[in-house]
Specification:
- Helices cover 44% and strands 15% of the residues.
- By secondary structure, the chain is α/β, with parallel strands linked by helices.
- The chain has one domain: Undecaprenyl pyrophosphate synthetase (3-Layer(aba) Sandwich).
- A six-stranded parallel sheet has the order 3-4-2-1-5-6, sandwiched between helices.
- The chain is globular, with a radius of gyration of 18 Å.
Length: 233
């Protein structure tokens, strides 16, 4: 892994979202079942989480399962949920070693009750950790999040304002940088409100093959950009 310019590292994004695309195509290229791609994708996620923590990222949001992913075959959905549940239960030492706090965004109520419990336990068990926050977007969709946030405001009798909606979101934090692997160039309903001024980065690498070096190079690309936030300068 190449060394990063310390001055460039100071300009790395603090809040990063990743659309982890390409697990199925990775498996298909190797004549393997899609489940093998998802398993290998989990390994990729662990190495990128560690790299992000080392790079000084404060919040890393991983698009794990979207509200649209329910359209997939039932056995694939079941495997994904079992994989997430196994990871949450079995990786406490990894979270502790890297001082990582786990958070969830998305409609928790629609998930299987055993997975809901595992998510809540992971959040509780890591709540005191003070390092990077890893946000798992599970049963998540940006439009759904905005809709639920607006309903919260209405139910509370509060005025619907941009600031009010933002505070009512699952993740009330601006996103600096969104990375998408796998060659597609779209947001796919990911962090729509938070990403209003996010920088975007797309690469062709399928997620299971995504390396720490590629990740750090993308952060360096971000650091070299001039973010104007609507200013004409």
């Amino acid at each position: 892994m190449e060394k990063q310019n310390p001055e460039l590292k100071d300009r790395f994004p603090k809040s990063v979202g990743i659309i982890m695309d390409g697990n199925g195509r990775w498996a298909k290229k190797r004549n393997l079942p899609r489940s093998a791609g998802h398993s290998e994708g989990l390994t990729a996620a662990k190495r990128i989480v560690r790299a992000a923590s080392d790079a000084g990222v404060e919040c890393l949001t991983l698009y794990t399962f979207s509200t649209e992913n329910w359209k997939r075959a039932q056995d694939e959905v079941g495997f994904l949920f079992a994989l997430v549940k196994k990871h949450l239960r079995g990786e406490y030492d990894f979270y502790k070693e890297n001082n990582i706090r786990i958070r969830h965004i998305g409609d928790l109520s629609a998930l299987p009750t055993d997975l809901q419990s595992e998510i809540q336990e992971a959040e509780k068990d890591t709540d005191s950790f003070t390092g990077m926050t890893v946000v798992l977007a599970i049963n998540y969709g940006g439009r759904n999040e905005i809709c639920r946030a607006t309903k919260k405001l209405v139910a509370s009798g509060l005025e619907i304002t941009e600031e009010g909606i933002f505070k009512a979101l699952d993740l009330p934090r601006e996103i600096d940088f969104i990375i998408r692997t796998g060659g597609e160039k779209r947001l796919s309903n990911f962090l729509l409100y938070q990403a209003a001024y996010a920088e975007l980065f797309f690469c062709d690498t399928l997620w299971p093959d995504y390396s720490e070096e590629e990740f750090l190079n993308s952060l360096s690309d971000f650091a070299s950009r001039n973010r104007r936030f609507g200013d004409a300068q």
